[in-house]
């Protein structure tokens, strides 16, 4: 124990982080005694058999997934291009651009949400699905740039130089050397963007209009009792994320072997 105290402390921290997820997973199999009760009353599989539950919860989940996919795709493309520009090129205003990239990450979500709302209202833009997508792209781009840029900083430039010495063109070097090495960072940035977009409530609440996402549905349902199917959706999303990470790890190990 004395020699492995760092490992023990790390395991305790992981256990602490996993406790809320374990509670959500357990409550997904719970039949509460009342709508406003969160005690474990009776084990049931009815929540998983009917995951949509009351109302239009599945519509809200599908809308959140659609927004997250669009925001992730746009933010990943834009953020990756910006990361390459900042990491590989010197240009006028590069330091100011680096500073501006960090501003959305440091700005409180209330300030960003209200500022975007003022911008849309001043521009005469109707609030709805696309304003939410634009807002999510704005704060996801910063995380993509930081993640991909860190991956580029850790790359060995001699690998690309060796490919060029072996008569590979710029496009061949990028496609066969640079992109495969940067791909883990791009995938990590995309997964982070998706989770941030799917989970966002404050900025979405300012700019959604009549569009209802899953976090907004949960917030509205909390006033009259959150249905247990919400725990089913949360557990399913966590399980999908774990499977995606495990699948990527298996693919990397197969390539390494």
Topology of helices and strands:
Elements: H1 5-27, H2 46-49, H3 57-88, H4 94-106, H5 109-122, H6 129-153, H7 157-165, H8 170-199, H9 202-207, H10 214-221, H11 229-256
Helix pairs in contact: 1-11, 3-6, 3-8, 3-10, 4-6, 6-8, 7-8
Characteristic key phrases:
257 residues, mainly alpha, MetI-like fold, 75% helix, globular
How would you summarize what this structure contains?
With 257 residues, the protein is mainly α. The protein has helices at 5-27, 46-49, 57-88, 94-106, 109-122, 129-153, 157-165, 170-199, 202-207, 214-221, 229-256. It folds into 2 domains: 56-226, MetI-like (MetI-like fold), CATH 1.10.3720.10; 230-257.
Can you give a write-up of this model?
The protein has two domains: 56-226, MetI-like (MetI-like fold, Orthogonal Bundle), CATH 1.10.3720.10; 230-257. Helices cover 75% and strands 0% of the residues. The longest helix has 32 residues, at 57-88. Helix 7 runs antiparallel to helix 8 (170-199). It is an all-alpha fold and 257 residues long. The model has no long low-confidence stretch (mean pLDDT 87). It is built from eleven helices and no strands.
**Which second-level CATH architecture of the largest domain applies?**
Orthogonal Bundle
Which spans have pLDDT < 50 for at least 5 consecutive residues? none
Counting structural domains, the number is 2
Helical coverage, percent range: over 70%
Structural class computed from helices and strand pairing: mainly alpha
Number of helices: 11
CATH homolog superfamily of the largest domain: MetI-like
- Kindly report the CATH topology of the largest domain: MetI-like fold
Distance between the termini: 34 Å
């Amino acid at each position: 124990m004395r020699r492995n105290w760092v490992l023990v402390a790390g395991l305790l921290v992981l256990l602490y982080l996993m406790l809320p997820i374990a509670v959500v997973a357990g409550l997904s199999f719970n039949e509460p005694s009342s709508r406003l009760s969160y005690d474990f009353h009776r084990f049931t599989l009815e929540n998983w058999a009917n995951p949509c539950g009351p109302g239009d919860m599945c519509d809200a989940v599908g809308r959140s997934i659609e927004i997250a996919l669009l925001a992730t795709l746009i933010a990943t493309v834009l953020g990756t291009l910006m990361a390459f520009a900042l990491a590989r090129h010197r240009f006028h205003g590069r330091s100011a651009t680096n500073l501006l990239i960090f501003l959305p990450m440091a700005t409180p979500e209330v300030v960003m949400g209200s500022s975007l709302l003022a911008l849309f209202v001043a521009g005469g833009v109707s609030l709805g699905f696309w304003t939410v997508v634009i807002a999510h792209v704005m704060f996801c781009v910063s995380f993509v740039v930081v993640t991909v840029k860190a991956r580029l900083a850790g790359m060995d430039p001699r690998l690309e130089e060796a490919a060029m010495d072996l008569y590979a063109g710029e496009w061949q070097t990028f496609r066969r050397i640079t992109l495969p090495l940067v791909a883990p960072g791009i995938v990590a940035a995309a997964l982070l963007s998706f989770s941030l977009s799917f989970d966002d409530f404050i900025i979405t609440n300012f700019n959604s209009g009549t569009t209802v996402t899953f976090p907004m549905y949960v917030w509205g349902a909390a006033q009259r009792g959150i249905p247990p199917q919400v725990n089913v959706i949360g557990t399913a999303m966590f399980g999908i994320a774990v499977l995606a990470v495990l699948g990527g790890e298996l693919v990397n190990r197969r390539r390494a072997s």
